User: Fold this.
Amino acid sequence: MPVPAPTSRAVLAPAAPTVTQALLDRWFAYLDVSPKSIETYRTNVRPFVRFLSERGIQNPTRGDIIAYRDSLKAEGKAASTVSAYLATVRLLFGWLETEGVCRNIAAHIKAPHQSLLHKRDYISADASARILAGVDTASAKGLRDFAILALMSCTGLRCKEVAAANVEDLHTEGGDLILRVLGKGRDEKADFVRIPPEVQAAVSRYLATRKDKAPGAPLFSSTSNNNAGKRMTPHAVSAIAKSRMRAVGIDSPRLTAHSFRHGFVTEALKSGCTIQEASKAARHNSITTTTIYDSSVALHSNPCSYRVARLVFPSAPVASAAVVAG
Assistant:
């Protein structure tokens, strides 16, 4: 079926056109975003196309989009997932309106409410110290894992950023040792993190065991039989983090490799860093993201329940908080 020709903006059609692959390809070609973002849009629009196809809907209406949103919720999709899928549909119909094809029937359709708190726990500074203490650094692998975890704990690097780092990305600038990183959604290594002295020492000890320290070589290389000396994958970095947690008895489905990044931002705020400083250090695109951590810190620091408990149980001894993992 041919892509509908634009109509006059003054008389936009109230009915939307059939969402065909040709229409989607035309939309993707219009978007001025990275190839990775295009792939994300492709992924996020597929459930909508499938929803329309399964119900034989040729010309979707506003009611159809609301029904689509509700079907995602009924399937048990997370609020964040439903919001992402719905945002893509809004973009699609917003473009159709811009092109003069039809009215934006997706405008102002509400996404489900999302919690302001993270769905994953964070690795505290004490837990990071415990995990690092459990790493045997008598081998090159141990030195590598120790350096990786120290870097993630003290700079908040993501697994993908650790895997993408090269030897040449580590250099002195303005009196500080920094690591250039390929940040989230970036096309080049325009971001950087400052490397604390303790982490510098850990990375140096590891690199001393390496033969290949050419500028373009990966900063952290694989030690597996099939991939020895080559670049690690983000999945491999994640697996290292999880296995090192479990090795010291820290095991919970709410703790992942990304929990080290959560821990970095949370501990930074707890130690007195401003929300602006923490946002810059974490390289968040928006300070709104950092406020999620700030909300969590505020809840953990809220003394109300403990003070009321002292009134309800005035004779009970004051006990310290217990940490339960797993």
Residues 125-301 form a domain with the hpI Integrase; Chain A fold (CATH 1.10.443.10). Residues 322-326 have pLDDT under 50 and may be disordered. The chain has 13 helices and three strands.
